[in-house]
């Protein structure tokens, strides 16, 4: 497997090449875990680093993320039935009343590229839906996004609903979105705040002890 070719294709945002190269790597005997760990994860880490250096912006991040997803699309069917090697499980949603999902989708993609299993709850997610997601399966992190100041209070309502249901023991809460701050994160009792997708991956890794 030529790790560098897949890596470079992700950085270029060339999904067609990523798909072809991943198929070739698997045909040559590479395991899905190898491809993810040696090509896709390092590529998305570099995408995050370039974003932080202002060499990449949101459009470039989205294009690279879609290219990485093309590779994961080839690998997912091959991993069915295999023992999970996920770093952690994240239930992610944009809070009730907020229909914005671009940032949330980017975070989901980058987290998946970093080895997390993602349960994407979508946008306009009521507190009860977050509660149900945690009741259905073991979850390491709950991710909440809000893109408007008017929907920020839904985060606090969700925190209270999770606490009332007794679901916060052993589960970390990660919040993000344009109007948020570390102060608001602390105020509602969340475990971590991320101002952008790259920071979200880093913070999520820290929260599960993988960073």
Q: Report the major sheet.
A: 5 strands, parallel
- Averaging pLDDT over every residue, what do you get? 90
Number of E-state strands? 5
Helix content: 55-70%
Shape from CA axes? globular
Count helical runs. 9
Summing up helix and strand content along with how strands pair, one would put the structural category as alpha/beta
Unreliable segments of 5+ consecutive residues: none
Radius of gyration: 17 Å
| H-E order | HHHHEHEHEHEHEH
Please state roughly what percent of the residues sit in beta strands, choosing from under 5%, 5-15%, 15-25%, 25-35%, 35-45% or over 45%: 5-15%
Set out the fold topology.
Layout: H1 3-12, H2 15-27, H3 32-52, H4 58-79, E1 89-95, H5 102-113, E2 117-125, H6 127-136, E3 141-145, H7 153-164, E4 172-176, H8 182-188, E5 192-194, H9 197-207
Parallel strand pairs: 1-2, 1-3, 3-4, 4-5
């Amino acid at each position: 497997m030529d790790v560098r070719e897949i890596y470079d294709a992700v950085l270029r945002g060339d999904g067609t090449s990523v798909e072809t190269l991943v198929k070739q790597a698997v045909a040559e005997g590479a395991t899905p875990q190898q491809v993810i760990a040696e090509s896709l994860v390092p590529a998305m880490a570099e995408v995050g680093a370039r974003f932080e250096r202002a060499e990449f912006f949101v459009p470039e991040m989205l294009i690279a993320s879609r290219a990485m997803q093309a590779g994961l699309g080839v690998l997912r069917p091959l991993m069915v039935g295999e023992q999970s090697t996920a770093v952690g499980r994240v239930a992610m949603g944009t809070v009730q009343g907020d229909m914005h999902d671009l940032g949330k989708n980017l975070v989901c993609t980058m987290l998946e590229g970093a080895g997390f299993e993602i349960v994407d709850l979508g946008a306009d997610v009521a507190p009860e839906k977050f509660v149900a997601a945690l009741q259905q399966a073991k979850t390491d992190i709950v991710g909440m996004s809000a893109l408007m100041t008017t929907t920020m209070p839904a985060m606090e309502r969700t925190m209270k609903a999770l606490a009332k249901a007794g679901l916060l023991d052993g589960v970390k809460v990660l919040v993000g979105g344009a109007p948020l701050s570390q102060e608001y994160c602390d105020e509602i009792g969340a475990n971590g705040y991320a101002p952008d997708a790259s920071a979200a991956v880093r913070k999520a890794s820290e929260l599960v002890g993988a960073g």
